Amino acid sequence: MTTLPDSTAAFRDTMKLVSGYSPTGRFSDCADKVAGLSSFKKAAVQWCLSRPNYDDPRALMAYDVFLSPVAYAEIFGNDLALPYPFQALPDIAPNATNAVVFIRQREDALRKLVNTDVTAFKAIMADQGGQLLDPLRHALTGLGLATPIQMWTLLDSQYGLSTITSTDIARWYASTEVPFDRSLLLSENIFNDVAAHNRVKELLGNAHTPTPMQRLLQLTRKATEYHMTSASWVADYDQKTRVLERTYETLSEHLLQAETRHNGSLLRTANAAYVEAPVEALVEAPAHALAAMPPAPPAVAPNSRLEKAAYCFSCGYGRHSSWQCHKMNYLGTLRPPFTSEMLKVRSPLGPDKKAITLVDSNGVSVPASEQHNRRYQK
What we know:
Layout: H1 6-16, H2 33-49, H3 58-61, H4 69-76, H5 98-129, H6 148-159, H7 166-175, H8 186-204, H9 212-226, H10 228-240, H11 248-261, H12 265-268, H13 287-292, E1 307-308, E2 310-312, E3 316-318, E4 329-330, E5 333-334, H14 340-343, E6 357-359, E7 365-367, E8 376-377
Parallel strand pairs: 1-8
Antiparallel strand pairs: 2-3, 4-5, 6-7
Helix pairs in contact: 1-5, 5-6, 7-8, 8-9, 9-10, 9-11, 10-11
């Protein structure tokens, strides 16, 4: 069994968490490769920018390593790309001062670090592309002589945004029209809905995304069909808000606040079905059947225990879940440094009964909160 380099394995693990990407974390296994390449590019740029070895990451992203001149300019503007491979440094004069020698040694060390990162990045590209990069493979050297920009150009020419078809656009539009999942909290559904719209915007740009009115009408329909109570919240919003002042954002905020006041019980009380089951007509049992029935059990007193608590990664046990926490996820927008994995945590302890610790977007390990609001029962 082949062992992956640390950087390649870590990149795969990161991509497994990206919505819509392949379960294996490899671009070559993505079902939707056009959308997958967009996610891969974004993650690759973030990887380049996160390299801790040197202050200026432009060498790693220069057009002859990864990005085209146009793509490079979109990120860095008119900043000049640092040329790679580096030109040879001039020889040091025999009588050079200590300062000159120090600067030369520092430049040599930085170049070695950049070269190391380029090698790691090339391994990531080769792993993500897999068999899609076969046209570049040599019978003897494989991808050893291929450059990262050659690999990226090949993938982009086949699956880049320039290859989008009307079928792709219809499929992405359809992803924004999926009804809310009644097994999830309303706030979770809104978060997923915002993510779907952001995905279409990222792929197609503002000019080709659903209009604000279309988004509002879709959210109104989805929330109305999700549950009778959420339908009443929509009606309440319509009653309080003038027609021309209604927006997707304000309706989302209204629904999130209403669910928070409702303690998320639309899900926890198992009443997420919008249509109530029909009430069956009562049929009176014969007298002899009633005589054979055991006596009815004594009435049980109403449960006087505390209300069931929700769990929030940041706040602990209390009134709201991570999805409803405005500090972590406001109006369906994930706030840094929190991550989508933190929103999914439902308990401070994992299956192994050990405390959960996750890494935030700044690379800092954050333990799940174990605070407990005593007004609620775990």
